[in-house]
Amino acid sequence: MTSFLPVLIGSALVLLLVLALFFRPALRTEKAKKPKVSGESPAFDEEYSVELAEPVRQNIIDTVPELPGSYGMDRLVLMIRDPYWLYSYWEVTATKMDEISGHLSPGLWESSRAVLRVYDVTGIDFDGHNAICSFDCSLGSPADEWYINVPSANRTYCVDLGRILPDGSFITILRSNMVTTPRDNLSDRFDEEWMWIEGLYFRQQMGVSSPLIIEELAERMGKLPLGISSPGFYNPHE
Question: Core-most of 3, 73, 135, 227, by most CB within 10 Å?
């Protein structure tokens, strides 16, 4: 009987080892599913670092201010897009609207239509009545910005926001700044101070050294460029 005792103990140990190996994956799964207890120190793994970064990113987004829809001031701004297009935006306060409509007969404001009147004021001191020419852009619906197609490049423009009454008269609500559109071709002006050096360029192509070219340029200009010297050049001021 005593001889069988070691065999039984060995068999029991083997059985316990087999059971431990069998139930170990299940224990891992249960541990992974176990919810975090309040106050328990979290594991610093990749998943936890993402959870920490998300609130920080959300706080940064929440602190970005939004641009207001209006600023409570009457203004009409005119800008240049290219030689043939302008861009205008504006804001008319309720106080300004009441001021303008108060000077009209009842119902006259509702029967008028909103327009942008574009003036060509190139080369003149514009006083509101002496524009070279003008044209209207009808604003069919309530708007606070508009793109304007102008007929000519390299001209100075100004814009009025206003209303055209049923009798054809125009009431100015706001007036913009003046802008000058760029040219749409090469300039026809020549700078007389530029020096033509085709002959010197030809000599350089034939192998003449740069100090000789600088010396000849200096003779034409009466002096050498600052910081450049040429061998053999005599400076009488030295």
Answer: 135
Q: Return the pLDDT at 149.
A: 97
* pTM (predicted TM-score): 0.55
Based on the domain organization, do 83 and 172 belong to the same domain? yes
Q: Are 199 and 110 found together in one domain?
A: no
Name the residue range of residue 170's domain. Answer: 75-180
Tell me, yes or no, whether 141 and 165 share the same domain. yes
Residue 101 lies in a domain: yes
Pairing of strands 170-175, 85-91: unpaired
Task: Tell me how far apart the alpha carbons of residues 142 and 169 are, in angstroms, rounded to a whole number.
Answer: 20
Whose CA is closest to 86, among 8, 21, 18, 153? Answer: 153
CA pair distance 31, 145, nearest whole angstrom: 62
Amino acid at 10: G
Model confidence over 69-120: pLDDT tens digits? 777 899 999 999 999 999 999 999 999 988 888 888 888 888 899 999 999 9
Cβ–Cβ < 8 Å for 215, 233: yes
- In the chain, how many domains are there? 2
Q: Distance (Å, rounded) from C-alpha 236 to C-alpha 6?
A: 121
